[in-house]
Write a structure and sequence with these properties.
The complex is a heterotrimer of chains A (622), B (377) and C (372).
Chain A lengths: L10 E11 L10 E12 L4 E5 L6 H8 L7 E6 L2 E2 L4 H7 E4 L11 H11 L4 H15 L14 H12 L6 E5 L7 H18 L2 E5 L3 H5 L3 E6 L2 E6 L1 H5 L6 E5 L6 H10 L3 E7 L2 E6 L10 H13 L8 E4 L4 H14 L30 E12 L2 E12 L3 E5 L6 H8 L7 E6 L2 E2 L4 H5 L2 E4 L11 H11 L4 H14 L15 H13 L5 E5 L7 H16 L3 E5 L11 E6 L2 E6 L1 H7 L10 H22 L1
Parallel strand pairs in A: 3-8, 3-9, 6-7, 7-8, 17-22, 17-23, 20-21, 21-22
Antiparallel strand pairs in A: 1-2, 1-4, 4-5, 9-10, 11-13, 11-14, 12-13, 15-16, 15-18, 18-19, 23-24
Chain B lengths: L3 H22 L1 H21 L7 E7 L4 H12 L3 E6 L2 H9 L5 E5 L3 H6 L3 E8 L3 H27 L6 E9 L7 H31 L2 H5 L5 H30 L8 H26 L2 H18 L12 H9 L2 H14 L3 H25 L6
Parallel strand pairs in B: 1-2, 1-3
Antiparallel strand pairs in B: 3-4
Helix pairs in contact in B: 1-9, 2-7, 2-9, 7-9, 7-10, 7-11, 7-13, 9-10, 10-11, 10-13, 10-14, 13-14
Chain C lengths: L1 H20 L1 H21 L7 E7 L4 H12 L3 E6 L5 H7 L5 E5 L3 H6 L3 E9 L3 H25 L7 E8 L6 H32 L1 H6 L5 H30 L8 H25 L3 H17 L12 H6 L4 H13 L9 H26 L1
Parallel strand pairs in C: 1-2, 1-3
Antiparallel strand pairs in C: 3-4
Helix pairs in contact in C: 1-9, 2-7, 2-9, 3-6, 7-9, 7-10, 7-11, 7-13, 9-10, 10-13, 10-14, 13-14
Classes of the chains: A alpha/beta (622), B alpha/beta (377), C alpha/beta (372).
Chain lengths: 622, 377, 372
């Protein structure tokens, strides 16, 4: 250990308080938002520390305050013994910071962006020469150094941002959701780098993340909630809260995991349920008083069998080791349980208007709502989408997975008629997109990767505009807007400028807008990117409900566990489909020593790496 | 201390390089920096002229006597007028109502009879909407008539016309009364203002809007270094614009240059600094490109045309408007340019004007530095 | 069709909300026209009312005194110095302390009395030759008046021909009457063009354009929905300028408001058309602003406002036929000051309609091509 244990803490805050004035809140009593509410904490030197918490918990505010970008209203904050309030420049000289939205200079090339930050941090000569190959290799950007940053895909931009941050070797590294929008492959590589920095160079890292498996790898975790620290300590302290309460239920044959999962979630005693590798993992609430060792499994069995009121109620339950995420959900539920009114904590639970149980799933494929055949898109000599074919049946969820720059967004844009195809056929709702673009559009809703509603307009004004844009009028329009406000719990914020909404609410608004005209098809491009686990659960509950009601959903995601919600998935890399089928069959296709990979995450990495290795081999021989 | 300076320099150098790349890669900056000056030079050189010539007038001869004919012939010969003979006053009025002619000269039927009694009157009607042009026409027409009358009087009576005062005017600095002489300084002011303020007004606002500042702020870079780096490329671009104008002034417009080029370049740099600082200040305050461009237009560009004394005489404006013009850099620069081009190194003009520009540059730069903090709120 | 109209109305409503909701953009749309109109109404005048001059009177006669009294009494000329040596003229003019120096030779009165031409020399600071020329013409007028009264006083006959001058539409020949109505076109052109170009560029930069394109909007609906709000805002700005012209500057409006607004609407459509065409080719807001300037500069210089179109070389005169501002300024003048009716304005109206139709069609084509 190089770092002196008796040195000043890397970061120390006492009694930090910060309130913001929210603009545009016409008729909204609350103009002030408390982002940090009397926070005190210490980050020891040389530690890898994670900040987790739901959207709007104050994570970004806290990181910005440490970086000296905003001044706190009260409290003291020191970084390596330096007072941030009085000497923010001295702090900024010693740290590196990656904001959530890393503002790359889009008209500069990858290399030029890197050079700029290296120069600003005074990294030159031999150090730079040694650093660049490592950074470029890690981010897989080496082949693209001359490309303009604006031409990179979303995930590649994120990686370049991280590379620009890592050019300096500071004493403290602040990362605000560094892996949002980064594919699992690159995420693993990034984490290796971060861990190595901490271990080898004694760097202190403070990061916020929505991926709770990342928090699990940290030395210490702060759980933030509504501007306060809910829990702190090693990840195991949080994980421990779900000890003996975490189980796995195997759905009855022929039952989709997500159906079992959504029923489990309906039970108030269950704080969390997620489909995983064909099973459903669920956590029993700790509101149930401290149990004897065998009581909880009993409850679990009761719950699972009573909830799954299927005629084939042969659900088998096994206890599993808890993970950080399970503990986190228990912790948050506690929080909500105390002050909360009896209204369901999970907004998606009230979905009776969406969920139509009668729709069959699996047996009869039904009519194909989307048919893509031999789709090709070229940009100059570069082929972004290379002979892609797939079909999506009505009322099913289709997941498009793939590393950054694989061609997912390009495919999406062609499906939506935002981009014309170089070759191939595209039928959406039975209509040829290339021929009747405007007519096809009435049939689908689209949620872009980046928030793309009118930020200056209020929630209600956005809804009103898009409702009219889709031809809704009169009573019908009022009803649909009312439905959206109610269903997405936006009513209390309806007069707020949508640009000022916390991240999760922006996502909800975007969904609401896409669903106003009750489309038959929903396109979602990385809808859960950066959302906290609870918001993701709520989101997927909505999606499964929609699918059950007959809506066809096409979705891209970087959360591989979310692929388990899909009826069918396709893994895309370099514009080509590498594997396709049900999640189970894709898992089975993974080349992990002949047997199927345990999780979708592993399967994804294995499939992509195998394909790339084959590509390299082919390239080597030819 | 020794180590601090090179580090700062290297940072500025890196940022300047970045700004320069951005500038060179965005065709719109080049359009403003290079194409715009060339277009303006073309327009100022060949299209704009305040010299009146070929004014369309209708001459209504209701008297066909030789006296009247001779008078109308006088208008015909003048280079200032393009005469259109018209039969009746009604026809002439129709023409004028349609703005087919800019004025009417009417000689009544009894013109020659009354003229012999020295009591003749020529009616001159001008199209007054364009007051400035109308005034010039009145002047030209009046003097054309006057000369005519003098000549006739001299011929007819064979004696002197009586004592009269004659103005012999001399236009110093611009003997030939070439309007390029005063358009060129105006041209330079416009170009320097556009390059200096408009481009920089957008650059900071753009970084705010695109969110590129947040990561930049948390580096060892100082706010002052960011500002400095934003000024350097646009300063160079402004000087290129100046060079284009000077070349055009010398070789295209043949405007004399009676002062010292070095002083001209020095005061231009001062003005450019002021313009850059105004742009950066607006940009840092508004953080919004639309508002920034509107504000720049309002406080720099339009005043450079209207309140600098380049087109319109400042002394004739109401005191309140003059006060505003004193607070704006344009008038000092126009005064400097006019003096350096046409009059020479007149220190009594150069020193106070340059002093004000220097003071403005200092105040604005300090203000900009104070406004541009590395804070997000 | 009705669905289409409803969509367009929704877009118009959204555009207006987006622009008018932000207090800063509200201020930057409606305050500048008023301020500019006020300031430029005062500033943009070629009329002089304060000409500092110095006198070098080597005659010291009753005649020179009378002429100087006429100058001083004009209210325009202010005597700032009385010189005794010709050497002082240079300093005074060089330093810009006097615009004119009037010099009477020793025999000024003697020559007048002798019935000859008595010369007075006027030296003008030609650094702004336009101002100097105007001042000289003022001197000329005063000298003419002096000559008439001198002749009358000394028993000479009246001049054989007098000129009876009268100006139509603007009896006192005030430049302000010419400038302020012209601002209606000039100021609205700039802002509406910029507003339109930026509104599309902003949507592109912020990704909202894609969201718009996945709704059933057709390209022409987007174009109409983007154009009309800008036209409306332009009309509001024009109204503000019109109010300042009438209520503050008291410039009498003799025409028909209906005709004026009709003409302005056509003009604004043409201006917005240019803005939209621009927006279809630019990628960023910055480009929108800068290109808008590159376009606006020639448009305003070649509009005939600052220098008459008839003075330009033929090639440039032909070029001005493409300039909507040229027609707008003509319409503003002719309706405001001259009371022209619709038939009088036909030569101005159809070119603007053509420009609007042309730019909007090109935009539609560019938009459609953008999908491919």
């Amino acid at each position: 250990m190089i770092v002196a244990a008796d040195g000043p803490p890397a970061v120390a805050g006492r009694g930090l308080r910060k309130t913001f004035r929210r603009k545009g809140g016409r008729g909204l009593g609350d103009g002030l938002v408390t982002a940090l509410d009397d926070i005190s904490f210490v980050v020891p030197p040389g530690a890898l520390v994670a900040l987790v918490g739901p959207d709007g918990a104050g994570k970004t505010t806290l990181i910005r305050a440490i970086a000296g970008l905003i001044a706190c209203d009260a409290g003291t904050l020191t970084v390596m013994g330096i007072d941030v309030a009085t000497d923010s420049q001295a702090v900024q000289d010693r740290i590196a910071y990656m904001p959530q939205r890393f503002g790359l200079y889009e008209d500069l090339s990858v290399q030029e962006n890197l050079d700029l930050y290296a120069d600003l941090h005074g990294v030159t000569g031999a150090i730079r020469a040694a650093l660049y190959p490592r950074l470029l290799g890690m981010t897989a950007l080496a082949p693209f150094t001359r490309r303009l940053a604006g031409r990179l895909s979303g995930g590649m931009k994120q990686k370049l941002g991280l590379a620009c941050t890592l050019v300096s070797t500071p004493s403290l590294l602040l990362l605000d959701e560094p892996t949002v929008g980064v594919d699992p492959l690159s995420r693993r590589e990034l984490w290796e780098i971060i861990v190595r920095l901490v271990r080898d160079q004694g760097l202190t890292v403070l990061l916020s993340t929505a991926y709770l498996d990342e928090a699990e790898r940290c030395d210490q975790v702060f759980v933030l909630h509504e501007g306060r620290i809910l829990a702190e300590g090693p990840p195991s302290a949080v994980t421990g809260r779900a000890a003996d309460r975490t189980f796995q239920a195997e759905p009855a044959p022929g039952q989709a995991a997500r159906i079992l999962q959504s029923r489990l979630l309906d039970d108030p005693r269950i704080v969390d349920a997620v489909p995983e590798a064909g099973q459903v993992r669920f956590v029993i609430s700790d509101v149930i008083p401290d149990p004897a060792p065998d009581v909880i499994p009993a409850i679990a069995t009761t719950v699972a069998t009573t909830v799954a009121t299927s005629p084939l109620a042969g659900v088998s339950i096994t206890a599993v080791a808890p993970r950080f995420e399970d503990g986190f959900m228990v912790l948050l539920r506690q929080q909500d349980a105390v002050p909360e009114t009896p209204t369901p904590a999970n907004p998606a639970r009230d979905r009776s208007d969406l969920l139509v149980e009668s729709v069959p799933s699996g047996d009869d494929p039904g009519p194909m709502m989307i048919e893509v055949h031999d789709l090709v898109r070229k940009f100059g000599v570069f082929t972004a989408v290379d002979h892609v074919s797939f079909a999506v049946a009505r009322g099913t969820i289709f997941g498009l997975l793939g590393p950054n720059g694989a061609g997912k967004t390009t495919t999406f844009r062609m499906l939506c008629g935002l981009l014309s195809a170089t070759a191939g056929t595209l039928r959406v709702a039975g209509l040829d997109v290339r021929a009747v673009r405007a007519a096809a559009r009435q049939h689908f809703g689209y949620v872009a990767q980046k928030f793309s509603l009118y930020g200056q307009l209020s929630v209600a004004e956005n809804l009103d505009f898009f409702a009219s844009a889709y031809g809704l009028q009169g009573r019908r329009k009022r009803e649909r807007i009312d439905w959206a406000l109610h269903h997405f719990e936006l009513r209390s914020l309806m007069h707020l400028a949508s640009g000022q909404l916390p991240g999760g609410f922006k996502q909800r608004l975007a969904m609401a807008v896409a669903l106003l005209h009750e489309p038959e098809i929903l396109f979602l491009d990385e809808p859960t990117s950066g959302a906290d686990p609870r918001a993701r659960r709520a989101f997927w509950q909505r999606i499964t409900g929609l699918a059950a009601a007959g809506v066809t959903v096409v979705v891209t995601t970087h959360f591989m566990e979310e692929a388990e919600y899909c009826d069918h998935v396709a893994i895309l890399d370099a514009g080509r489909i590498l594997a396709a089928g049900t999640p189970a069959s894709v898992r089975a296709q993974a080349p992990a020593d002949g047997r199927g990979a345990a999780t979708m995450d592993d399967a994804f990495v294995a499939i992509v790496e195998q394909a790339r290795a084959r590509e390299r081999a082919a390239g080597g021989t030819s | 201390m020794m180590a601090v300076i090179p580090a700062g320099l290297r940072r500025v150098e890196a940022l300047v390089r970045k700004e320069t790349w951005q500038l060179l890669r965005d065709p719109s900056s080049i359009a403003i920096g290079i194409v715009m000056p060339l277009v303006l030079i073309l327009l100022f050189g060949f299209a704009l002229s305040l010299d009146v010539k070929g004014v369309r007038i209708a001459v209504v001869l209701e008297d066909s006597s030789p006296t009247a004919m001779e008078l109308s012939a006088g208008f015909n010969l003048s280079p200032y007028f393009a005469v259109q003979p018209v039969k009746s006053m009604t026809a002439a009025e129709t023409l004028m109502r349609r703005h087919r002619v800019d004025g009417i000269v009417r000689l009544l039927p009894d013109f020659s009879r009354r003229s012999s009694r020295n009591d003749a009157e020529a009616q001159i009607l001008v199209y007054g909407t364009d007051a400035n042009q109308a005034r010039i026409i009145e002047g030209y027409a009046g003097s054309a008539l006057g000369q005519q009358a003098l000549r006739r009087a001299g011929e007819g009576r064979g004696d002197a016309t009586g004592g009269h005062a004659v103005v012999r005017s001399r236009l110093w600095f611009n003997e030939a009364n070439d309007s390029h002489y005063f358009l060129v300084p105006g041209l330079i002011v416009l170009i320097m203002t556009l390059i200096g303020s408009l481009l920089t007004a957008l650059v900071m606002a753009r970084e705010w809007e695109r969110g590129t500042l947040e990561a930049l702020f948390v580096t060892p870079v100082r706010a002052g270094e960011i500002l400095l780096a934003k000024m350097v490329p646009y300063f160079v671009l402004g000087m290129i614009g100046l060079a284009l104008c000077l070349i055009a002034a010398r070789f295209l417009f043949q405007v004399p240059f009676r002062g010292s080029v070095l002083i001209l370049i020095a005061v231009s740099m001062l003005y450019l600094l002021v313009a850059l600082a105004i742009g950066l200040l607006i940009s840092s305050l508004t953080r919004n490109q639309f508002v920034a461009s509107m504000a720049t237009l309002l406080v720099t560009f339009l005043p450079a045309v209207f309140l600098s004394g380049f087109m319109f005489d400042l002394r004739s404006m109401p005191v309140a408007v003059q006060m505003i013009s004193f607070a704006l850099p344009g008038r000092y620069y126009v005064s400097l340019l006019q003096t350096l081009f046409l009059a020479g190194d007149i220190w009594a003009v150069i020193l106070p004007d340059a002093g004000v520009l220097a003071a403005m540059a200092c105040v604005l730069l300090v203000l900009t530095r104070l406004v541009a903090t590395k804070k997000l709120d | 069709m009705t669905a289409s109209v409803r969509r367009i109305l929704a877009l118009i409503r959204k555009e207006l909300l987006a622009v008018l909701k932000d207090p800063r953009s509200r201020v930057s749309l409606f305050l500048p026209p008023i301020l500019q109109c006020l300031i430029f109404g005062y500033a943009a005048t070629y009329d002089l009312n304060h000409v500092p001059y110095a006198v070098l009177d080597q005659d010291h006669s009753a005649a020179s005194g009378e002429l100087l009294a006429a100058l001083d009494g004009s209210g325009v000329f202010q005597r700032v110095a009385v010189l005794s040596r010709a050497d002082d003229i240079k300093t005074l003019i060089d330093q810009g302390r006097a615009l004119l120096v009037i010099q009477f030779g020793q025999d000024f009165e003697r020559r007048l009395a002798a019935g000859g031409a008595a010369e007075l020399q006027v030296i003008a600071d030609g650094r702004n030759s336009n101002t100097a020329g105007t001042a000289l013409s003022y001197v000329g007028t005063i000298v003419d008046r002096f000559n008439t009264s001198w002749a009358a006083d000394h028993g000479d006959a009246r001049a054989p021909v007098r000129a009876a001058m009268r100006a139509w539409y603007n009896a006192n020949l005030e430049t302000r009457w010419y400038m302020v109505p012209a601002l209606i076109g000039t100021l609205t052109l700039l802002q509406t063009m910029l507003l339109t170009a930026m509104s599309v560029a902003r949507e592109r930069e912020q990704g909202t354009f894609d969201q718009l394109l996945v709704t059933p909007f057709r390209p022409f609906e987007i174009i109409v929905g983007k154009a009309l709000p800008s036209v409306l805002i332009g009309l509001i700005q024009a109204t503000l300028i019109l109010l300042v012209a009438q209520l503050w500057f008291h410039i009498p409006f003799v025409g028909s408001y209906l005709v004026l607004y009709g003409g302005l609407t056509l003009f604004l459509l043409a201006a917005v058309g240019i803005g939209l065409m621009l927006s279809a080719v630019v990628a960023t807001m910055q480009q929108a602003v800068l290109y808008a300037f590159v376009i606006i500069m020639p448009l305003s210089l070649l509009s005939g406002l600052t220098t008459p179109i008839s003075n330009m070389p033929v090639a440039f005169q032909t070029l001005t036929l493409l300039n909507p501002l040229r027609y707008a300024i003509d319409i503003a003048h002719r309706v405001y000051l001259e009371g022209a009716d619709l038939t009088d304005l036909i030569p101005d109206l159809w070119p603007m309609a053509l420009i609007a139709a042309g730019t909007l069609s090109v935009t539609a084509w560019l938009f459609r091509r953008g999908f491919e």
